[in-house]
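Per-record layout

source: Paenarthrobacter nitroguajacolicus
name: TetR/AcrR family transcriptional regulator
length: 203
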Amino acid sequence: MSLPQIRRGRRSAGDHSREAILAAARKLFAEKGFEGTSLRQVAREAAVDPAMVHHFFKGKDELFASSVELPADPAEVLAGVEMMDPSVRAEAIVRAVLTLWEGPAQHGLVAFARGTIGSKAKSGMMREVVSRAILSRVMAGVSGPDEQVLLRGNLVASQTVGLILARYVIRLDPLASASQDDVVRLVAPTIQRYITGDLDSLK
C-alpha cells in the first residue's frame, strides 16, 4: 500500500487566496464587528473576486469561525446551557468553564488569552466571539428589556473572564489552587445574580 504523497514546494494560488481572505476577514471583523462586515467587503480588502470567498467559505458564519481560530468550540463547551432554566444556570456555566480550562486545551487557551490581551485586533475578534457564540447561549431565555439583558450578559462576562485570568493566566493563589467545588460555591452565586438577580443596587 503506497503512502499518500506530501505536498512540497511553493504554496498554490488557492492557498494564497484563502489566507488573504482570512487575513482580510480578521481585520474587518475586529474593526467593524460581525454585523458591520460583509463578504463583499472582505473580498475587496483581500483583493479577490467575491466568488472566491464563496468558493472557500459557505457563508459569513463559517468565515468568522475560521478567522477566530478558537482553541475550543463554545457550542460544545456550553452544550445544553441555553436549555436550562435561567434561574439555575450559573453553576453549570462555572463548571463548564473550569472543566474546559483544566482539560487538554489548557495550554492553547492560556496562549490564546495572553495573545488576545496584547492585541487590539484579537481583542476585537474576541468581543465578537463572546457576544455571538458565548453570551447568546448563556443569556438565552433571560427575561427583561434588551438593554438590561445586555448589561447582565456583560456582567457575567466580566466575572467569568476575571476568574479565568486570575486562576489560569496570572495564577493568583489561593484561587488558583482552590478545588473546582470551592470555586463553583464561591463564584456561581455572583454569576447567578447577574443572570436573574436584583441589579437595582448597581444603579
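summary: The chain is about 65% helix and 0% strand. The two ends are 71 Å apart (CA to CA).
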